[in-house]
Design brief:
By secondary structure, the protein is an alpha+beta fold. It contains 17 helices and 21 strands.
Length: 532
Amino acid sequence: MLAQQPVIILKQNVERTQGYEAQRSNIAAAKALAEAVRSTLGPRGMDKMLMDGTGDVTITNDGITILDEISVQHPGAKMVIEVSRTQDEEVGDGTTTAVILVGALMEYAESLLNKKIHPTVICRGYRMGMQKALEILQSMATKTDAYNKDILKKIVQTAITGKSIEDVKDKISEISVDAVMKVASNDGRKVTVNEEDVKIKKHTGATMDDASLIMGVVIDKARVNQEMPRSIINAKVALVQKELEIKKTEVKSKIRISSTEQLEEFAEQERNALKEMADAVAASGANVLLCQKGIADAAQFYLAKAGVLAIEDVPESDMKFAARALGATIVTKAEDLKKSDLGIAEKTEEVDDEEMVIISGAKNPKTVTILLRGSTYYLVDELERAVVDATRVVMDVMEDELFVPGGGAVESELTVRLREYAVKVGGREQMAIEAYADAFTSIPIALAENSGYNPIDKLVELKKAHAEGKKNFGLNVYTGKMVDMQKEGVIEPIRCKRQAIQSSGEAVEMLLRVDDMMVSQSGKGGMPEPME
């Protein structure tokens, strides 16, 4: 106040929340999001049905897909979703785990705040716990060969078990592992994989069992002329950027034609120019043409006569992908084509009754295509999400050559060992580290609940097993027994767990340090309430 007059600092449409209320709001938001995805965790998790404003329906149990479809306004909730998004971008799997961990860490922090423990003390304890957790995680990891196909298939099956496409998990595992192994590069010291080298194409029709790995490329186009061959063996593929058409002049001009002879000569000249383009393609030895632009009717006729299967208006991304898959060179115009520019494939074929051409059988392709089929769009979309997760976890293990047991084994071991560590630390930080340790129980508890078991009973059994040194023991969600997850083949990339621990811990630390939120409202109303 200045001379009894209020000093206006914030605009009238800014909603301000301070102190414990700000922390309570962020805690409630994190807990609400965790609760929203909690029931999807594990092999026996349930699916969510989501519908956006346009009426499109999505059915999935993929954490990041669910959170992306939810319309969230709360700033704290947006940060939690960012944790899930980062997990998806960096690892490809474990998005639900990361969000559940954030919710649990915030819930346990709330109980500490109620005991008048300062947020900075909680953050310090949580950070100490996170660093120790990463050490324990590393000690649990098992080394494997990057090209151990049996281990890689088990990794994939762990990632996709529980999804609605589980009936074809054996085939999807085989396809995903073969695809990644084919494009992986090894410099003698480290294996690296570019995720963009595995392209996923989806088409409705047929069944999920018809999914296949194409050593080449799939073009979502039909041949431009029905007179062209539908199928070509020993394909030699030309990639041309410019159109096979008579280009319009860039400046305004007029051509005066005063007689039918002149008109005929003009048309003949156009035909000859288009014939030269088509002849140039055929002369290079190509019997398949992918053109980034259009192909004129006359050029189509001459190409068909030469026995060339041509596709027009091919997207630039597909052109570049085809070049890497087939070992071809993209040329600017047809007249520049040489034999050395052509890509080689065993077969090019247009699929019956579908706008799709498959170019397969490339030798040593640097890129491959996974073709997914299904009876409905919803099923194919979910299959695509599963295959993306599958290929990403294979890449993670091939690059790191480390894996850890699943089934809640890692989280149970972290709970027991972190509590032992907390006692050695002492002070108020001990309480924060113990809370951090207990937050990891949220994962096995969710697994037990989603499988229809009493979560307290199963948690006690897990803690007992890990206290006895059985560090790989987790919950078998089908029998309810505690088993060695590594022997059961339930394994996950260490990168999934490491990223979930790091991103959840750092996000919670940022949220707990917030004691003042100022939110500008675009319309009327106060601070957006967290999801219930």
